[in-house]
Amino acid sequence: MKIKEIQDEIVDEFSLFDDWMDRYEYIIELGKSLPLISEKYKTEDNIIKGCQSKVWVHGELKDDKIVFTADSDAILTKGIIAILIRTFSNQKASDILDANTDFIDEIGLKEHLSPTRANGLVSMIKQIKMYALAFNSNN
What's the pLDDT score for residue 35? Predict the structure, then answer.
């Protein structure tokens, strides 16, 4: 599935909820389905800088696609990174670099997060793009 199709799917899912309490619940549920990072990758190098909670992201190249795993010590943050992992994992580096992240604004995520969480979200996206950049330049 292409990144844009996954993003559209996420926007559709969020449109089913009328209020933000339900959306928060949904984000927390998504966090429970996150492909968890191996303990050996829970290192300082994999911590996202700029997040108020601890978030670890690890990416590795498998068959020309980057597979991401992640974890967080905060349940809402875990859900946020789960959305990003769902969108960008198992995609080609060049596609991740070309992808836009407008869908985050479409679901209203940034505006409903505290400023520190919104900064954390931006940092998570940056980190995913950095992995893509690194793997893309290796090709």
Answer: 79
